[in-house]
Amino acid sequence: MGIHKLNIPQLQKLTSLEEERQRSGLELIPSENYVSQDVLSALGSVFTNKYSEGYPGYRYYGGQVNTDYIETVAIDGAKKLFGADHANVQPHSGAPANMAAYSAWLEPGDTIMGMDLTHGGHLTHGHPVTFMSKIYNFVRYKMKDIETGEIDFDHMLNMAKKHKPKILLAGFTSYPRDLDYSKFKQVADQVGAIAMADIAHTAGLIAARVQANPFDSGFQIVTSTTHKTLRGPRGGMILTKGQVSNPMKPVDKTVNNLPTLIDRQVFPALQGGPHMNNILAKAVAFEEAAQPEFKSYASNVVANAKELASQLMARGFKLITNGTDNHMIVADVVASFGIDGKQAEEILDKVGLNTNKNSIPDDPNPPFKPSGIRLGTPAVTTRGLTQQHMEQLAVWMHAAIMHRADAVKIEGIARQVADFSRKFPLPSDN
Ligand code: DSN
Predict the structure, then answer these.
(1) Does the C-beta of 31 come closer than 6 Å to ligand 1?
(2) Of 3.30.565.10, 3.40.50.1220, 3.40.640.10, 3.60.150.10, which CATH number belongs to 41-289?
(3) Does the annotation count 321 as an active-site position?
(4) Residues 383-393 pLDDT 10s
């Protein structure tokens, strides 16, 4: 079917080139995915023309008869998927979602405890380069054992008693193991902190009940992006437990009022007009994720990642935590092959296998030239690859790295990858 062609030739040409790049390569970046034609159509809909500051029933502009309806459908879809009492679907992405959640509960100078970035956390969980780190005091916990991924909950508890965080954050962007959310909640309860999960990476796996849901362990706030394993448009959301009330009226700062405290932070405190075409696309994605096929998709993402991890390890890739329980793999390419993550990313890009350079725990190298790469299976599983294809991917990755200085061999692998990839159309090709 494809999408409407643009009337500006040079921009249409670039769009066609990007379609062809995506079609003739395989996306292994674990935070990327290929959306359905319906999600693309929603993004390209006339809802992009509309200003809708406020919330359904409480807007600052007229003409909201349809926007109120679609935002309500999106809110209800998110609540149902994740078992939340409330959903704010307006955050433009994950970072603003986290910012709104922090500022709804904290005062400047308050403490948040989150995972160290190189051990799998995220910039917005307290990296010194972020704006948030200027406002809040971040303290970090780590893995106890990078061979297994075990998190050091005793150390976490000791740190929590010392630093008294008001939010304990379970959030990860490069952590390949399952999480026991109840252990985080126990630590949070002992120091009177709110338990908040950033499930940006695993939202699709949680929606499909392939991974544990933090709300089942009593978490009070869950933030996420909508475009990774959840396979929706680029965007964010904040899910909460508690009482929903009029978002136009101030409420007391109580745990039960978190839904309203957060609504009031997203708008008017931090954002202006919501992107209604994007909210329509979120509504579409939530409906898609509620279907039985999505459960099979999410199970296949994990099965593919486990198989790919074992095929890579069999070829000398040293993986952080020696495998994966989710959609993601982190490889130490310095230890495996004596090249850095930037070099590995570039050589794999050349053969049409897209991964991203990534820090490894306590990486001695800087983030732009780190020791690792990060890869995963959400996108290739959407394309239709199954466990039987994972060996071939590992063979190509290994061969590309081993023959990186041989231009003819690299060209040959690139041709094989492109021929193979074209057999698996993009969802928007159908
Ligand atoms: N950039 C996202 C990722 O790739 O994990 C996190 O913000």
Answers:
(1) yes
(2) 3.40.640.10
(3) no
(4) 999 999 999 99
Ligand 1: centre distance to CA 60 (Å): 33
pLDDT at 4 (0 to 100): 81
Query: Rounded distance, CA 196 to CA 100, Å?
Result: 12
Q: Is the CB of 324 under 6 A from ligand 1?
A: no
pTM over cut 0.90: yes
From 172, 173, 223, 328, give the residue whose CB has the most ligand 1 atoms within 8 Å, as the site to mutate: 173
pLDDT tens-digit series, residues 396-422: 999 999 999 999 999 999 999 999 999
Compute the distance from residue 31 Cα to the ligand 1 centre, in Å: 6
Given ligand 1 and candidates 201, 357, 374, which is best to mutate, with the most ligand atoms within 8 Å of its CB?
201
Q: How far apart are CA 54 and CA 77, in angstroms?
A: 19
Ligand 1 in contact with 173 (CB < 6 A)? yes
Question: Which residue is catalytic, options 67, 124, 225, 226?
Answer: 225
Which residue in 330, 18, 34, 64 sits closest to 173, CA to CA? Answer: 330
Asked if 379 contacts 227 with a C-beta cutoff of 8 angstroms, the reply is no
Q: Can you give the pLDDT at residue 55?
A: 98
pLDDT tier for residue 2 given thresholds of 50, 70 and 90: low
Ligand 1: residue whose CA is nearest its atom 4 = 31
In this structure, are residues 255 and 283 in contact, taking their beta carbons and an 8 Å threshold? no
Tell me if residue 147 is catalytic.
no
DSSP assigned state of 153: H
Sequence spans of domains, the chain: 41-289, 293-429
- Substitution candidate for ligand 1 out of 122, 224, 225, 356 with most atoms within 8 A of CB: 122
293-429 belongs to which CATH class? alpha beta
Instruction: Write out the E strands in 10-142.
Output: 26-27, 54-55, 58-59, 86-88, 111-115, 137-141
CB 288 within 8 A of CB 36: yes
pLDDT digits (tens, 9 = 90+) for 102-141: 999 999 999 999 999 999 999 998 889 999 999 999 999 9
Q: Identify the residue whose tokens are 């329980």.
A: 325
State whether the beta carbon of 30 lies less than 6 angstroms from ligand 1.
Answer: no
Tell me the pLDDT tens digit for each residue of 325-383: 999 999 999 999 999 999 999 999 999 999 999 999 999 999 999 999 999 999 999 99
